[in-house]
Every structure is written in C-alpha cells, then in structure tokens.
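Renewal narrative, Specific Aim 1. Our central claim is that a sequence can be written position by position from structural information alone. The example that follows is taken directly from our test logs and has not been curated for this report. It begins with the structure tokens describing the chain, in the order in which they were read.
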C-alpha cells in the first residue's frame, strides 16, 4: 500500500523520488509518495512560489495547445515527458477544439501509464506509452505511436516542462533534433523549461540536482538553441506568463513568473 492508503502499481519504485510525482505534489495532486513530498519540501525552502510556477506551466500548455489546434491547424501531438494526468491535459484541450485530434503521451514513469489508463479508457484518439524520451529511435519506431501519429502530416512535438530534467551530457539538443527530423514541414515544437533569469536560479538548480538528481537552469540563449532554425511564433521565447496572455501584464515579473520560459516554433 502507498503511504496514502492506495496500492502501489507494479514497477513503481516508491523509495526514490519521481519527476512526475514531484510535479504532482507541486500541483496539489494525490498521486505521490513521502519521498516525493520530502523533495518538494526542500525545493520550497528556496522558491516558495513553486506551486505558482507549476500553475503557469499548465496555463501555457493550454494556451499553446489551443494555438496549435486553432491557428496552426495541428491535429496530432506527441507529448514527451508528459507527467501524470491532471487538469487540462493536452488531449482535453486539443479535442475540445478538434474532437479528431490525436495525442500520444510518453513518459518513462510507469505510474503515468497506471493512472492514464483510467482517464483514456474511452478515448481511442489518445494513448500513453511508457518509454524514455531520451531514446527517440525507439519511440519513433513504437507501433502504438504509429497507430495515432501519421508522420507524413504535421505534428505538434511537446517538450513542456521536461528539458530541464535532461543533463548536458545526455545531449538534449540532439534528442530534440531527432524528433524534429522525423516530422514534416508545418510541424511545431512547443517547449518550456527552467530559465536562469533570476538571482536564485543557481541555488535552486543546486537543490534540484542534490535532492532530485535533475533540474538544469539554462539561459535564454541556451534555450533558444533548441529551436535551431525553426520559425518562431510570436512573441518568441519568453517567460511563461508573457506568451500570449489572456489579459495584459502590467507589472514587473516576479521570481515565480521568471522561473520558466517557453515558446513555439514552426518547422519550415
């Protein structure tokens, strides 16, 4: 049984923190364990606004997916490192505007599949694949991915809130490039990541690396490099609240608002 009275699914290691479960803690979810809550507790000592940051990331996910469906005409999505299902998931946002939109969630934590099954049981246009996004070759050859994704048509490639969990020596640039090489012109890359744009970034990065083992804060210039020669969608790569906000922002951005940056770009 878990520490909250639910059985732990097979293959789930409850003795080590999980990125997906730690994010669930920050979002106020219940699909996590004591080790995950302890890790988040350490992070909150440095940046108490982390729940706000997570909320900003979910909000830009909704705005970005809505843009991709309604303005860019995208009808199929690969959500890489998707994390646990929560509110306003990619398929819910996409299918609200386009019921025929197809979504493949990919995450290496088996708890994502365990909890995703119930959510997706009656949704034939959405699936969850347990795989490591750092292995693009395997994912791009996966039959379940090919069941929903037609690689001759534009694809929305989502790396939302996950690139900062890839170390430099794992060559995240090449990982992103591999997915973009597999999709045709008209496809889009949607990326958000921790950004070293505030004084506390170095200390928070150190905390992430020591307690979770991942959490790289890259500069805006480094993050821009992931988009390569893609055509940036306005307003470009910016702090999350500044990407096509639903209401004007008329104040100086807080640490929570600066902690992550995001953007969308189109493959020519």
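The sequence written for that structure reads:
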């Amino acid at each position: 049984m878990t520490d909250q009275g639910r059985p732990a699914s097979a293959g789930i290691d409850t003795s080590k923190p999980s990125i997906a479960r730690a994010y669930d803690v920050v979002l106020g979810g219940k699909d996590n364990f004591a080790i995950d809550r302890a890790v988040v507790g350490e992070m909150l000592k440095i940046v108490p606004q982390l729940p706000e940051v997570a909320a900003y990331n979910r909000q830009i996910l909704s705005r970005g997916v809505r843009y991709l469906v309604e303005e860019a005409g995208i009808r199929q999505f690969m959500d890489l490192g998707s994390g646990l299902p929560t509110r306003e998931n990619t398929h819910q946002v996409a299918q609200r505007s386009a019921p025929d939109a197809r979504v493949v969630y990919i995450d290496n934590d088996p708890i994502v599949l365990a909890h995703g099954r119930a959510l997706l049981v009656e949704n034939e246009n959405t699936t969850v694949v347990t795989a490591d996004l750092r292995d693009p070759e395997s994912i791009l050859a996966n039959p379940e991915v090919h069941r929903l994704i037609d690689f001759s048509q534009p694809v929305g490639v989502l790396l939302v809130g996950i690139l900062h969990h890839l170390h430099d020596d794992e060559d995240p640039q090449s990982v992103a490039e591999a997915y973009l090489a597999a999709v045709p012109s008209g496809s889009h890359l949607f990326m958000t990541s921790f950004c070293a744009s505030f004084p506390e970034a170095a200390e928070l990065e150190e905390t992430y690396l020591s307690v979770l083992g991942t959490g790289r804060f890259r500069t805006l210039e480094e993050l821009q490099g992931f988009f390569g020669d893609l055509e940036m969608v306005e307003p470009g790569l910016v702090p999350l609240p500044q990407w096509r906000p639903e209401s004007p922002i008329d104040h100086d951005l807080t640490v929570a608002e600066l902690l992550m940056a995001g953007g969308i770009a189109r493959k020519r």
